[in-house]
Amino acid sequence: MTALGYVFDQTVLTGYAQGSLSIASLIVHLDERSVRIAVPMLAHSASAAQLNEQQRDELDSVITNVDMVEVSPLSYLTDSNELADILAATGSIDYPAAHTIAVANHLGLEIVTLDRARWEDVENALPWSLELVELRDD
Length: 138
Fold this sequence. Notes:
- This protein is of the alpha/beta class.
- The protein has a five-stranded parallel beta sheet.
- It is about 55% helix and about 15% strand.
């Protein structure tokens, strides 16, 4: 993939909202270098469902106020059909993961995750490989 940017999955969004300093630093670093950060709407929804009100506000604030962070919605029938194709290919009903994959494919970006194992079943079911970057505090 050649585009400059990343797609944050549900685990990264949740980690940020729960106070991860390494994710906060990464967001600042990428924003300062004008590197795009895509947030799939369904990954945001899945993350927000796990958060309290204060954490949701923190997550929404960074999405709203950081220039290089942008929400990637399902806006067109082609978006919905690509999501359906991914769901059919994986035999999964993991909508946040499928939307994250669709956004990454559409934008030509790598997916950033805190949990590579979370992607194993989906990755094994797809007829193509995923470009994943796992963040770790080593």
